[in-house]
Amino acid sequence: MTEARVTRSSVVAGLALALLLPLGWLLAHLPIGAGLWLGRRLGNLGWWVLPRRRAVTRDNLARAFGNELRPSELEGLARRSFEHLGMNLAEVCVLLFRPRSAVLARLELAGHEHIDKAAAEGKGVLLLSAHLGNWELFAAAHALTAFELSLVVRPLDEPLLHRLAERLRRRSGVELIAKQRGCGRSSKPSGAAGWSASSSTRTARARRGCSCPSSGSPPRRRRGSP
Length: 226
Description:
Largest sheet: 4 strands, parallel
Helix content: 40-55%
Order of helices and strands: HHHHHHEHEHEEEE
Number of helices: 8
Number of domains: 2
């Protein structure tokens, strides 16, 4: 990517944030039901103004469920996925603009006994997750346990958005580990009770990935990905 393209992208990202941050503050301070309702409406708006993402969503759902669901059901599921992303945005705004306690009051941690059992062995716990649901809330939820959490993350391509994402995640009280460093490079002392978490996506640049069949197609995967 040329310097001119990077600069143009940064300007666009900066203008978008300047417009959206006041809306984010509003989402964060609305009652829960009203905030999620507005988030769904933002998802509906995204459905209409992001035709490329809409096409990708339709294609992915057809690959995954084309033999099980009717076209009308696939279309409804695609639209609801955009609404779900809008609700994710509303929840993230609470984490970004309000104290962490406001987020924790909305969360209920289920199944933590499995983590407790694994941590009892004294070796730490490695959690692997796909990009499903609101993974930013997962980072915040660790405060409901007695453990520390380190996240393996990939820096975002847009520096301004990367700084915003870092601020959001650090407000969750987690340690951030760049993926280039790997899970074994945490600054926490050896043997400390804690989790390391990583999330995975199906896409990767062709020059850095290998093919792995999924849903009947060969997506790109980064070498070394699980």
